[in-house]
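Final report, Chapter 2: Outcomes

The project's central promise was a pipeline that accepts a single protein chain and returns its three-dimensional structure in a standardized token representation, suitable for archiving and comparison. That pipeline is now operational. To close this chapter, we reproduce one record exactly as it appears in the project archive, with the input sequence first and the structure output second.
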Amino acid sequence: MTAAPKLRFTFAEYLLVDETSQARHEYFDGVILGMAGGTPGQARLAVTVASWLARQLEGKRCAVFSEALRIRSMATGFAGYPDLTVVCGELERDRESANTVTNPTVVVEILSPSTAEYDRGEKLREYQGMPSLEHIVHVAHEAVRIDVWTRVGAAWSADSYGPGERALLSAIECTLDVDAVFRDPLAKTS
């Protein structure tokens, strides 16, 4: 008789898997999930959005980080790698992992057909449980659209922005010009 596989893991076990693997993983409700790879178009969109934000944040106490930054919600335990993260003020490090930050202000996800449902569902709910988070941004990959969730007190409101509009990220005093983000023809290739 074979023992049943372990279905739930501690955060420390997740860290061991994630930090010794070639691939990245997210940690969701005790489960370790492998992350899907992206396309060149998604990578280009991420760089374009990061560039827009970085220019607007020059001289401010906020910085943009790539998908290499792992964040963790101390409220829910979720840990993962947004495509982009903005942190304002000093980085607050997780007590179990100095390479994990617990105080993101903005997270950006570049949606893909394989991840959009997860990004708009379970992952969105996990992000909304992070007390420091003020905006959650979804950049569509196959449409010219940017969706922004904004914390309003204890609730969240959502706005969608399309051609000719500027997505507002009021917490960091930035905007994303939708036409400019999607102007790059390389960002539209898969």
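Archive annotation: The longest strand covers residues 146-152.
This record, like all others produced under the grant, will remain available to the consortium after the project formally closes.
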